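Sharing a chain and its predicted structure for anyone who wants a worked example. Both blocks are below, sequence first, tokens second.
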Amino acid sequence: MARIFEPVDQQIRELPLWAENLVAARMVRRAALAHFGEAANPLREKVMAALDTMEECSRTGQLTGAQKAELEAAYRLRDTAQRNEEPLLGAIYYAADSTLAADAAQDFPIDGTVAMSALRAIDSLQTDRRFSALQMRVLLASDVDLLRFSCQMDAAHRYSGLGADVVNNLPPIHPLTCDHR
């Protein structure tokens, strides 16, 4: 099966590290919104809290101890997944890993790990047959283009947080369209 991100793989790798992470978090949030809907659900709350943390870290360019604990809890969600939750919770696992790697890259030369985990998070979603691969490609390419442009305009460098100016240029996130066949 072809990976859905192949057309923009290199473009993602050229973004600042926190933008690479944000691309994954935004795509996973779209899938989570589609998966859970608006119904209250303890798992939904944990997933959304982890995604909020990922997006906040991308904006600030740093990870606090409490945020690290939140992401480590998100790692463990994958171990509790029921069959219909496996793609989403696998994506959360890799998106959390991307966030942790972006933070660690401030001290160690592991830049490639951020992109690889971000790409694996997005790739995990393609096994969920309810989501259109074309829709995911279009949204992914759009996020990458908008982030690249905003990062250039704001002079965000490879290791900096994105800041409010970059993040606020992105459109709101809506759920992926589901095919409930």
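Comments welcome. The CA atoms of residues 10 and 84 lie 31 Å apart.
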